[in-house]
Amino acid sequence: MGGQAHGGALVVLRSAVVRLSREASGRINALLDDWVPPRVRDSRAFAALVRRMHVAQDIPIEEFKDRAFQLSSSEFRDFYRTHDTHLDQGDTDLTPASEAGVVAAVVGCSVLDVACGKGHLATRLATEHRVVGCDVSIHEGWRALSHPGLVTVEASVESLPFAAGSFDTVVSTHTLEHVQHLGVALDELRRVARQRVVIVVPRQRPYQVTFNPHIHFFPYRWSLLAWTGTDRPYHLDLVGGDWLYVEHRAGEAVG
Hints:
The structure is a single chain. By secondary structure, the protein is of the alpha/beta class. 32% of the residues lie in helices and 20% in strands. The chain contains ten helices and nine strands. The chain has helices at 22-35, 38-41, 44-52, 61-67, 73-82, 96-105, 120-125, 140-143, 182-191, 221-228, and strands at 18-19, 87-88, 110-114, 130-135, 150-154, 167-173, 193-202, 234-239, 242-248. Helix 9 links the parallel strand 6 and strand 7 (193-202). The protein is globular, with a radius of gyration of 18 Å.
């Protein structure tokens, strides 16, 4: 017995996999963020509901935010390596609109996709670019994919094993909301980018209890700009429910 999904509807019955598009889950999160009072969002009852959507592990999802910044780097990586949910959003966290925005923003021949997940975006970009996909744990399901324009490397966004300016475009989608040291991660993305940095983060309000283990939140434009700064040429737009940030590096001529 468990959950079923019919025509995109969400039905949760115990612990079966619930299939839900990224667009649908985004609408549900926006509804919860905007209309459920914070006292309810942070209640034990809501935490119990969220816990049912996650596979049990050493650190319960509702405790993760309290402990995330005290964990060692290895403990933090282990949490994400073992973390799993009963929610299936398919092969990517990107909505079709935000994915199209990322693809349109990529320039040059070489691309690094940081925290590439299941490889959906990296594989798509590899049809027209030389792509390196990196993640702390490369999914076995696509590690062996044969594509002349795609290689995979296991690495953390906070310590990328590449020389400065190695890639024309560096892409990182739905990553910064998870990292322990956001400033360090941004510095690394910029360090290895020659022309452009492309970032996608969800627009989401901060709560103790959320369906994803996010530890950084960007409900407003300034929430992201507070970290990226405004001293570099950039574009920032809300696309498909996500913030799409495109930064032009020193190696790119901006008209």
